[in-house]
Amino acid sequence: MITLFLTLSAGALLSASGRVAPGVPGAAATSDVRLKTISTRVGAAGASLVIEATEPVGYVATRPDPLTVALDFRNVDATGVANRVAANAIGPIAAVAVEASEWLGAPASRVRITLSQPVTHRVRSNRNTVVIEFDRFDRPSAKAPAAAVGSVALGSTSGGGAADALKALEIAQSPAVEPVAAETVSRAPRPSSSGVTRFGQAAALQQPATPGQGDQTARRFTGNLVSLDFQGADLRAVIRTFAEISGLNIVIDPQVMGSVDVQLREVPWDQALDLILRSNKLGYAVDGTIVRIVPVTVLKAEADERLALAKAEQDAALNASPVERMTLQLSYSTGAQIVELLRSGNILSTRGQAFVDARTNTLIVTDVQERLPGVTALIASIDKPQPQVEIEARIVQTNKTYARQLGVQWGFNATPANDVLLGGRIAGGTAVQGPNATSTAVNQPVGGATSAVGIALGSVNGTFRLDAALSALEASGNGRILSTPKVSTVNNVQAEMTQGIQIPIQQVANNTITVNFKDAALKLLVTPQITASNTVIMNITLENATPDFGRQVGGIPPINTQRALTTVLVNDGQTTVIGGIYTSTTTNSRTGTPGLSGLPLFGWLFRRDVIDDQNTELLIFITPRIIRG
Questions:
Q1: Domain count of the fold of the chain
Q2: CA dist., res. 98 & res. 36, Å (int)
Q3: Which domain, by its residues, includes 76?
Q4: What is the pTM of this model?
């Protein structure tokens, strides 16, 4: 396994030209940078190798194998360096050699450290000094794998590195990432004051995992661990650095420009590259063994162009296909609805058309053969019989007192499976909705009995109990059932029940008499909706219009109107009730002796005046029953 760490010190940055650009004031030119001394020191924690330069330098630290650590210094002269270690073994350091190397076409100097045992190492820098620290003994958690991979020189990679890098990059980019934790990475110490990071040794390379569809946290990075410290570095030069690290063949788009400021410690190189690219709104496209770095806008434009080209090719293929005709006999759907669905649902091709024969309710479709099976499948899933709902209404007239004895619950405890909204205009009460609601929806005092408003909702537990109570009502003479209409309607189709009279209204215009009729009736509109839980949602509109002949104007009585709109949820066969519709009837009658009853002052002795005020209440019981075919 190869573990490679890249660090640029705070005082030296790699430029695109391959020179070491000064990162702090007073930095020397490249030709003046050189290594001065290489020495060792021994402490309680272990041995350290100290490399001193004339100024802060950039370097690349690699671990080609468990017994070798290499540091490469680009554009740094090592001629005349005082190597005070050479072949003298000190602790785990067996030998130190200085070699000439090359990186990205520029000369470099390499310091190769040979170890006597595979101990953990850490690299840090402070000003002009680079320190490599080695543990005194081999830590079990830092042991390298038994099978070591061949050495890596600057400018080349070991076999299979590019293939592994391509596998990592072929995983789709994701905004949120979860890197693979290395098994034997030592804890990274805190960075020094110069901002240079320290390193540990990485574990075996993990295999990439393909993320699930739509999973934004499944991205895993499997590249070798790398530590980066860039300050204002040229973006193109940084990407070329990743090409050197990973061994990828990278082509950079001319539109890629910018700078990089990043400090990362021991992260997979593919994760670091992914973050840098996304931070600069860049993406990549893999073509064989070549990775192309381009702005995401370019990638999107290319993807749109490919989609447009594919669509054009598909349209060309469709235009070349012959048009076929298909007729379908609709049983439960109207042809106009199906035609509208086909036209708006992008089901037909640009050459497709749909017509309907209203006389026979037959659908006629013309399109290419590839689209006709989709049309057939859609119609087969839609053209199905819908369940019906039988709505039974009982309109009962009773006095106010006996209405309280019918067992009508004005408001009831709702349950989570049966939430009911009590609506309408309620006098003296409050609507209740939701679980654990216990207050009543209506509280009609006697004084409010003659009010023109006050429609309220309730429920009755049990249809049999309701029928028995209504029969007892008629038997006792306290009320009567005015009508019991029943109507069946298809799911989500409105049903209407009306009972009343029409009042003729004469109008004279230009010596012409016209008669119009105005409805004065009790009208009930119900739209049922069957739910998956075998309950029925009913949108109820109730309107009670009664003529008031006691206040006629020109022989035309005004019409008193009460109206309620509500939505209730009831079980199949359960009854809901609407009450609070009061009617007041005043009867004036006079009986007396003819002739004498009309005498002034004394006529009242020979006649009897009877004034009868009668108040009644209308109760409307609605029971839905689901009828399935």
A1: 3
A2: 12
A3: 3-207+218-297
A4: 0.42
